Amino acid sequence: MKISIAIVEDEKNYNNALKKIINYQDDMRVVAQYFDGLDALENLPDISPDVVMMDIQLQDMLGIEIIGKIKKQLPDTQFIMCTSFEDDEKVFNSLKAGAMGYLVKGESMDKILSSIRDVYNGGAPMSFSIARKVLSHFEKKLPEIKGFDELTQREKEILELLSQGLLYKEIGDKKFISIDTVKKHVGNIYRKLHVSNKVEAINKFNHFKN
């Protein structure tokens, strides 16, 4: 099974370059290319790709808006923001909308390809400069701990493994459950902790432990 990828990017040369290098890989293929937000908004729910490479600043709308509108229709699709913007507001709005990765344009193709594999396997890949912003943001603003007591023992165990950096597949192997079951547990964890991504969930867990 190849990782199915959709590219939403209005810079045609960059969009086509991504498609070419992705399709050259043995384990992934591009199933759709979109050059504007409206086209992506209308068609992504029908395609349901494993991963979407999403530009933030499209000519007709923000990529963040697209994720906000279709994320519920695509619960198993992972979004990676790929952009030239590094300002805090866009970073955090992307993560709140449900993006699991955030790459700055200019990253090597190797980094982009490894990020696609990483996010598909339950990771949250970010460019180094973005990861630093996220960490410093959480150091300044400690989240309120809510919902931890609602977690089942299994959910707490999975959250502990997530905080150790394990991917969904590794958690599944360790707990003898399928990746889909892990994803369902993670969805329940997010709902109970009132978070929208793994970074926030792990941060709450770490503060609870401390």
Low-confidence blocks of residues: none
If strands are numbered along the chain, what order do they take across the biggest sheet?
A: 2-1-3-4-5
Strand count: 5
The SS-based structural class is alpha/beta
Domains counted in the coordinates: how many? 2
DSSP strand (E) fraction? 5-15%
- Please report the first level of CATH classification, the CATH class of the largest domain: Alpha Beta
What key attributes describe this structure?
alpha/beta; Rossmann fold; Arc Repressor Mutant, subunit A; 2 domains; globular
Describe the protein.
The protein is α/β, with parallel strands linked by helices and 210 residues long. The protein folds into 2 domains: 3-141, Rossmann fold (3-Layer(aba) Sandwich), CATH 3.40.50.2300; 153-209, Arc Repressor Mutant, subunit A (Orthogonal Bundle). Helices cover 53% and strands 13% of the residues. The protein is built from 10 helices and 5 strands; from the N terminus they run βαβαβαβαβαααααα. The chain has helices spanning 12-23, 37-47, 63-70, 88-97, 109-120, 128-140, 153-163, 168-175, 179-193, 198-209, and strands spanning 3-8, 28-34, 51-54, 78-83, 101-104. Strands 2-1-3-4-5 form a 5-stranded parallel β-sheet, sandwiched between helices. α3 (63-70) links the parallel β3 and β4 (78-83). α3 runs parallel beside α4 and α7 packs across α9 (179-193).
